[in-house]
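Entry 14. Ran structure prediction on the chain below.
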Amino acid sequence: MVARSLRSNRDFSVFWVVQALSEVGNAFSLVALPLLVLHTTGSAAQMGLLTAVAGATSLLTGLVGGSWADRFDRRRLLMLCDAARLVLYGAIPLCWALSPQIWLLYVVMALASVFEMLFKITYVTAVANLVDKEQIVAANGRLEATNAIAYIAGPALAGVVAGFFGPTAAVAINAGSFGISLVGLVFIRLRPTARPPADRSETESKAGRARNGLAGFRTGAAFLWHTPVLRALTVLLTVTTFLSLGMTDVFIYHLRHGLGQDERTVGYVLALAGIGTCVAAAATARLRRSWGFGRCWLGALSLCSVSVLVLGRTGRVSVAAVTICLYSFGMALAGVCSMSLRQQVTPDHLLGRVTSAFWTIHGSLAPLGAALLTALVGMLGTRGPLTAVAVVFLAVVVAAAFTPIRQRHPEQTAVPPRRTRPADTSPPREESHGDDTEARR
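Output, C-alpha cells:
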C-alpha cells in the first residue's frame, strides 16, 4: 500500500531519481579530490588540511542552516545549493586546464561545504513536504538505499575516469551531477511549510529572531531537549557518533595491517559494507512495522556492538567482511529509524532548526573521537580499542532501554516543548500517526 502510494507520487519519484544521480556524482569527489591534491602537491597532509577546512565550515553552517530552511522556500533553497556547487566545482577543471592552483581547492571546499550542509538540512525537511506522514519511513528507506548504491558505484567509476582522463574529469562529472539535480528540482513541487497559528505581531517577532542563526539553533536544541525521546536519541547518538566516525579508517587499517590484505580486497570489503547499508535501508519500513521503533533501534545498536567485538578478534578476512557488513546494516537501520522519528515528531515549521541542532550537537565531538580512536588503534592494534567500542555500544543499548526509545511507537507519546519563550516555538498541530511512523541525522 505504502509502496504503491509512493510510486504514484510523481514529485517524490522525480526527487528520488535526480538525487540518486546527484549522489553518484557526489561520490566521485571521495576519489577525485584526494587524487587531485596528491597529483598536484604529492602531500597527504594537504588533503587532511583541506578536509579540516571543509569540516569547520560545515559545523558553522549547521548552527544557522536550520533557520534558513524554515524561513525560506525549501525547493528554491535546494536549487540555490545545487547551482552554487555546480559553479564552485565546475571552476576546478576550468582552472586546472589553464594552470593548477591549490589555493582554489581550499576556497571551493570551504564554500561548497556551506552549501552541502545547507542542502542536507533542507533535504530532510523537503522529504516531509513530499510524502505523507505514514510514508516517511519508506521514503527514507528508498533514498538511503540509492545513496548507498551511489557510494558503492561512484568511487569505482571515479577511479576509472581519473585513470583515463585525469582527476579533473571526475571533478567535472561531480559538478555536472549538481546540474542534473538542479534541473530535476525545477519539475517538482513541495507542499507549503506548515505554519502555526499566530497573530501578526508574534509572527513578525519570530521572523526577526529567525534572522539570528544562533537563536534558530537554540530553538531547535530546546525542542530536542524538551521532547523526551529526541533528547535521549541526541545524547546517546552523540556517544555513538564520537566512536563511529573513524570506524571506516579502522576497518581499512585492520584489513591492511591486521590481516595483511591488499587494496583490492579492502575495496571489495567496503563495497560489501555498502550492500549492508542498502539491505538495511530497503528493509527498515518492514522491520519497523513488525518490531516497532524500540526493538529496531536497540537491536541495531546491539548488532553493531557484537559485530565490532568479533571484528577485533578475528584473523580471517571472510569473517571480517561479514562483521563489517553487519555493522553497516545496524548503523543504517538505526539511522533511518531515528531520522524518520524526528521527522514525524517535529512540527513542520521547526524541522529545519531541529535537524540542524541535532546534527550539530551529535556531530560536534566526532572529529575528536575519530582522531582518538585511530590513534589508539595505531598504538595498540585493533583488538583492544574495538573491544572498548563494543562495550560502549552495549552500554548505549542498556541506557536506551530505560528511556522512551524502548517504546514501540514513541512518536505517539512524544511531548512537545513547553512555550517557555513564546517567540521560539509554538505548539505543534495535532497529528494522527500510522503504524510505520518514525523519524530520523
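The chain has 16 helices and no strands. Will compare against last week's run tomorrow.
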